[in-house]
Structure formats: C-alpha cells, structure tokens
Specification:
The complex is a heterodimer of chains A (249) and B (121). Chain A contains nine helices and two strands. Chain A is mainly alpha-helical and 249 residues long. Chain A starts with a helix and ends with a helix.
Chain lengths: 249, 121
C-alpha cells in the first residue's frame, strides 16, 4: 500500500513542477531554463514509458541517456515532440478508439433482432478489416480483429523480409560476377605491370653491364711507324760523332 | 570494486540452450546478481538486438523481468569479459559503440554454429 502513495506523491510533485514552470515571472526565465526535471517522476506523471522516453533521449544525450536522472526542460520538450510525431505517424492511435464507440452507438440505436445481431459482427469485422488494411496493426478492443491484424502484420512482415532478402540476394548475385571480373582485370593489370617492371629492370641491368664493359675498355696504343733505315742512321750518327770528335779533338 | 567469485568464468563465450534467469546466469558467470544487472543495463541501452530479445509489454515497453535468451546470455558473458579487460563501464560502452557487430545476433549464430559443429564432429 505504501507504493501507490509514493507514486501519487511523486506524481503530484512532478505535475507541480511541470505546471509551475509557466507561472514563473518573466524575469526568472533564465533560471527556469536551467531547472531540471526528474525523468522517472515526469514519466509517471505523464503516464509515459520511461524506456521509450530514454530511447528517444539517446538522440540528444548519447553518453548518459541510460543513467541520467534529471534533465532540463528543453530536452523534455524534444522528447515529447518526437513522441507526438511518432504517435501521429502511426495510424493506430485513432482507429481503435473511435471504432468501438461507433459500434456501441450502432448497438444502442438498432433494436435487438436476430438479423441485426447476426449482421453486426460482420459489419464490425469489415470495419476492423478496413482498419487493418489501413494501419496494418489492427484494433485492440476485439479479439478476432486483433488476431486478424496480427496475422496480417506477420504476413506483411514475412513478405517484406522475403522481398528484402530477394533484393539483397539479387544484388549479391549481380555484383559478385562484376567483382570477380573486376578483380581478374585488376590482377591482370598487376601481372602486366609486374612483367613490364621486370622487363625494364632486366633491360636496365644489361645496359648497365654494357656501360661497365665500355668503361673497362683499354685504349689501344698507337704504334709508331718505324720507317728509318737502321744502317744509314748508324753511319750518319757515326759520321756526325766522328766529325765532332774530329772537331773537338 | 569487489572481486569476482570466479575470474576465469568469462574467458570464453557462453552458449546455453535454455532461457535463464539473471540469478542463475550470475551464478554461472561467477558474479553477484547486482553485477550482472549492471552489465544487463549496459547491454539493454547500447545493443538494440539485445533489447529486442526481450518480450514487449502491452504498453510497448520491454519486459526486462523475463528470463534471458541464450543470445542475451552470450552477450552478457562477452560484456563481462570486456569489463574484466577494460575495467570501466565507460570504456565498455564506447567499445560497444565502436564495435556493434561484435554483439550482433549474426555473430552469435555464427559462433554457436562453429561450436556445435566442433562438438558434433
């Protein structure tokens, strides 16, 4: 019994905090923006799921969305805006609420008769079938439409999953040969480049060896021509010497 | 930080073939239940496939009281190992953020099939 009391007090405080905020004087608006609100209390007060609240909070506070306890009003505004946008995007919100009322009205206006009692569930089924077709989720108030809705969502989900899988498999089968051909071409290119490099290296090696050979070549000395008459030269030299000897002597 | 009852229990991946309560899993992993709860808290908020493994309540929220599936037990074992290696939950969180595929259901199924093949061979 103690827990509900705690909950109500927390609810009251949170509501008080939430409602008290707009009543703050204009001069204190800056202080108001710095005020923080307890997430747990706020969710209880607004009848929101804290899990979904925190999961939306992940978008703006990725570091501490799971552990933070107090957040500023601006963050709460963001989460509420996202929540309402999500709820508006889902067509389920209105249809189950309105449909049973219409059925109840139809029940109250049409007197009970065997024909009506037989036709009414059919109408209800058709109506809910329309809801199911529109929303894909189905009503929550009646058992049969709910199971019907579940089947359809399951079927839709299965169809969507298979379509997605087929598309992905198609993509894989489409891109795999392309990738293989591309890889083969790339490999060919690599081999060609390797061969060409090897050829250039070999050629360069030969050129180098040729250059080395050229540098090691020894110049052939030019042979002097020996066109002198040996005997005549000796006699000439002897004569010169003799003459000199004669002169000097 | 309180030391673990068993320091080697998270050295290897954990594969169970039955739904397991948190208390039982804590016993298997050699940690206290509160430690396991803190690991579960990390996994719940940071790993979407772990979160989606819980059944949903009527209001769309996840029923975290329900027993853990074999996949969830595997994830918690891996988080326990990371905690042993990295020491701080902030580091574990950033690791999960950077390597989400390490905890994917696909990764789990692949690892499990490898183990099963080895056992069956």
């Amino acid at each position: 019994m103690a827990r509900p009391r705690k909950t109500t007090s927390a609810t009251e405080t949170a509501t008080a905090t939430a409602t008290a905020a707009p009543q703050i004087a204009p001069g204190l608006e800056a202080m108001n923006t710095n005020e923080t609100i307890n997430i747990s209390d706020y969710c209880k007060a607004q009848n929101l799921s804290e899990q979904s609240f925190r999961l939306i909070l992940e978008n703006i506070r990725p570091d501490d969305f799971d552990s933070v306890k107090h957040i500023p009003q601006s963050d709460i505004d963001y989460v509420l805006a996202t929540l309402t946008a999500t709820n508006n995007a889902l067509p389920i919100a209105e249809s189950p609420a309105t449909q049973p009322i219409e059925l109840i009205e139809a029940d109250s206006t049409i007197p009970d008769s065997p024909q009506n009692s037989e036709t009414q569930p059919q109408q209800g089924l058709e109506a809910n079938g329309a809801i199911v077709a529109n929303s894909g989720i189905g009503g929550l108030t009646q058992n049969q439409p709910m199971s019907q809705g579940r089947n359809i969502t399951l079927l839709d989900e299965l169809i969507a999953a298979s379509e997605e899988e087929i598309k992905l498999a198609d993509l894989v089968s489409q891109f795999k040969p392309q990738q293989i051909i591309q890889n083969q071409q790339a490999r060919d290119g690599q081999l060609v480049a390797q061969l060409r490099e090897q050829r250039l290296n070999t050629r360069e090696g030969y050129f180098n060896s040729l250059r080395n050979l050229q540098s090691t070549t020894i110049d052939k000395p030019e042979l002097m021509t020996d066109n002198l008459d040996f005997d005549a030269e000796i006699t000439r030299l002897s004569a010169e010497l003799g003459k000199q000897l004669v002169i000097n002597g | 930080m309180r030391s673990r009852r068993s320091k080697s229990s998270t050295n290897f991946d954990l594969f169970i073939d039955f739904p397991c309560t948190k208390s039982h899993l804590a016993e298997i992993l050699g940690v206290t239940r509160s430690t396991l709860i803190s690991w579960e808290n990390i996994a719940f908020w940071r790993i979407p496939s772990f979160r989606d493994s819980y059944p949903k309540s009527h209001d769309g929220s996840y029923d975290r009281e329900s027993p853990l599936s074999p996949y969830q037990a595997w994830v918690l074992g891996r988080i326990g190992r990371l905690m042993a290696q990295l020491r701080r939950s902030e580091r574990v969180k950033s690791y999960i953020l950077k390597n989400p595929n390490d905890f994917s259901r696909y990764h789990f199924q692949k690892a499990q099939s490898q183990v099963t093949q080895k056992l069956g061979a």
